[in-house]
Design goal:
There is one protein chain. The protein has 187 residues and is mostly helical. It has helices spanning 69-91, 93-100, 102-128, 135-159, 164-186. It contains 5 helices and no strands.
Length: 187
């Protein structure tokens, strides 16, 4: 038998009927008509953020660190150049040893070490181009890279194979050291 009184049944769509109590612990949900009226103070149109209390200052993110463009660009060029030089030197190792003999071993060892250090310095340079705290480490790495590039230039002069790549191979570490010094001074 059904009860004809609609207020005696639980209402799932709003507040309980006047003669019923909300179960203990149940969330209280106001029915229709409760809350701020649209257009009145305290109401916020849909899609807009809620108003903050007077004097509230939203948190401000620190400005992004400025990236040293010289270190960043030279690092990318060194990664690409070091990888190409490493692959080329390892692929042509037998020809280098055949043409240059005993000096070819020195050329191959120095060029492989230089290629690996260029790749490492390039990766660290890209990662640390916006961090002034990394400036000293990049500067030290750049000096080591410059020393290897000078040794490679001397070997190239001894073998008579000085070209544009040898000059660029000496110019990039110089630019890396200059950029790392700028980054170091910013710290």
């Amino acid at each position: 038998m059904s009860n004809p009184d609609p207020y005696s049944q639980p209402n799932p769509y709003g507040p309980p009927a006047p003669n019923q109590q909300q179960p203990y612990g149940a969330p209280v949900t106001p029915g229709y008509g409760y809350g701020p009226t649209p257009g009145m103070p305290g109401s916020v149109p849909p899609g807009y953020p809620a108003q903050q209390p007077y004097g509230y200052q939203p948190p401000v993110a620190p400005p992004p660190a400025q990236r040293n463009k010289l270190v960043f660009v030279v690092s990318i060029i060194m990664i690409v150049g070091g990888a190409i030089g490493l692959i080329t030197n390892l692929a042509a190792a037998s020809a280098i040893l055949y043409v240059f003999g005993g000096v070819g071993i020195a050329v191959l060892i120095v060029s492989v070490i230089l290629g690996v250090v260029e790749i490492i310095a390039g990766i660290l340079g890209v990662r640390g181009a916006s961090d002034p705290a990394q400036g000293q480490r990049l500067f030290t790495l750049g000096i080591a890279l410059l020393a290897l590039a000078v040794v490679m230039m001397i070997v190239n002069i001894m073998t008579g194979s000085v070209g544009a790549t040898a000059v660029v191979g000496l110019l990039l570490p110089i630019l890396f050291v200059v950029g790392a010094n700028q980054l170091r001074q910013r710290a």
